[in-house]
Amino acid sequence: AWVLDGMLQPGEVRERSHAPDASLPDWMLPNIADPRERQVLFAQMAAVMASDGNLDPKEKKLLRLCAQRWNIPEPMVAQILGNPRPVYSNSLQSASPQWFLAGLVTAAMMDGKVDSQEQAMLENACSALGLPPDELQRQLAAAQQRMQAQSRS
């Protein structure tokens, strides 16, 4: 069904850009195939980032790059950035739950720390994705190592 969602009317053309941003490594931009899943992840990432009350410039930059990579329509991006709210669900459907969680972990760590609200949101997402709690801890540790390595280079 997601293939049909991506179909355009004759004459419509969507510009695709996969040009990497030199200031953000590829691991910060999750590769999600399903367009509907991308939109849910985008909204969840924005909600995690905004849980501390605002979106800082680095967080907005990551969200803009994700929106560009995932071809999320600008009106939807503006709506989500204007009022980021989590998508509440007992179960999140994802073809790649580890990638989905990795996107949320990156969003939470973008400002350099994971506060208690972000931690709670990540734990809820981990559970909703059907992943064991140790997967979240593993991903948090891996993201922290990558960010430290990135700051040294």
The H-and-E topology, N to C, reads as HHHHHHH
Q: Characterize the main sheet.
A: none
Q: Give the amount of beta strand, in percent.
A: under 5%
Query: Number of helical segments?
Result: 7
Query: Into which percent range does the helicity of residues fall?
Result: 55-70%
User: What is the radius of gyration?
Assistant: 15 Å
- Provide the residue-averaged pLDDT: 80
Distance between the termini: 42 Å
Structure in words:
With 153 residues, the protein is mostly helical. It is 58% helix and 0% strand. It contains seven helices and no strands. It has helices at residues 2-5, 35-50, 57-69, 74-82, 97-109, 116-128, 133-152. The protein is globular. The termini are far apart.
Please outline what is shown here.
This protein has 153 residues and is an all-alpha fold. It contains seven helices and no strands.
How are the elements arranged and paired?
Blueprint: H1 2-5, H2 35-50, H3 57-69, H4 74-82, H5 97-109, H6 116-128, H7 133-152
Defining key terms:
about 150 residues, about 0% strand, globular
